Amino acid sequence: MKKILLFCDPGIDDAIAIMYCLLHPGLDLVGLVTSYGNVTEKQATDNAAYLLSLAGRQDIPVIRGAKGPFSGEIATYYPEIHGSEGLGPIKTPQDFNPTVYPFQKALDLILKHGNELTIVDVGRSTSLAMAFLLLGAETMNKVEQIFIMGGAFLHPGNVTAVAEANFHGDSIATDLVLGQGRNVTIIPLNITNKAIITSEIIDRIIIKANNPFKALLKPTIEYYSDAYKKLIPGIQGSPLHDVVTLYAVVAPNQFNYIERRVRVEIWQSRGMAIADFRGTPKEEPPETIDKVAFDFNYEAFKEDFIKIMMNPIYYRRN
């Protein structure tokens, strides 16, 4: 069973990823670190805590992360994609007042679990970069693995022509993580744009689902799908960028990877993922090489998603 510390910014696809993690018998969610990105840090925190409350998993700490990027810029949010509060048409209760933890809790979890911990970052990497700065690279690289959803390699971006939203949102932080991080796996838009979940798939799940997220799935996915159909005419459903990143943790044999050193452009082409894809790339120190996913088994992902989202909540006390 993989112990997961999830850095996220819910956001519809982040919310579905949290549900998937809670329902997966092979994943043990030990904490959620929430930050700005799809919505404000405060709203992301409320959304994450709300999902845990629905699941009866208030034992999992929700940890407040970064409120904005290292550049000091005012963050851009995407209500046209995720809704004004991040969960499409779903609103958290007005009197909702969850227990949340300061960022030190994330550092404590990293120190506690060490090489048993897998860090999965599916949002802006500001909070993860903060952990590297506060604990140091030597300590951070004692974790088992780091998975990052972001970037676009030889593939169009979704915020600019060359940049994906997470890498663009705080390119300074992402480049810091990639510069200092070891055993990093990147799941880019090349993969995540293909991880499409259609309304027919959701209908299959809802018929047999046995968990407290059942009522949320259809309205949130439909909202997300409608937004994507405006952005990408002809798309058949919703790309679940963050869920497929968690799927890579539990099913690495369903992905094909290229190993390269990855950095991120900070200035002129901000957020552009950079790697040497020549036939004989420049030789780099082996410890600096990252794994970049370039293909995956969509049918296996789809069937796994259907199966997991039908599951009941697995109550594991950390």
Broad structural category: alpha/beta
Major sheet attributes:
8 strands, mixed
Strand order in the largest sheet = 3-2-1-4-5-6-12-9
SSE order, as H and E?
Answer: EHEHEHHEHHEHHEHEHHEHEEEEH
Cα separation of the termini: 12 Å
Q: Helical segment tally?
A: 13
Mean pLDDT across all amino acids: 95
Indicate the radius of gyration in whole angstroms. 18 Å
Number of strands: 12
Low-confidence stretches: none
Description:
This protein starts with a strand and ends in a 9-residue tail after the last helix. The chain is 39% helix and 17% strand. It has an 8-stranded mixed beta sheet with strand order 3-2-1-4-5-6-12-9, sandwiched between helices. With 318 residues, the protein is an alpha/beta fold. The model has no long low-confidence stretch (mean pLDDT 95). The chain has helices at 12-23, 41-55, 79-82, 104-113, 126-135, 137-140, 165-169, 171-180, 189-192, 199-208, 214-231, 241-250, 298-309; strands spanning 2-8, 27-34, 62-64, 117-121, 145-149, 184-187, 196-197, 238-239, 255-260, 263-264, 273-274, 290-296. Helix 2 (41-55) links the parallel strand 2 and strand 3 (62-64).
Summarize this, please?
With 318 residues, the chain is α/β, with parallel strands linked by helices.
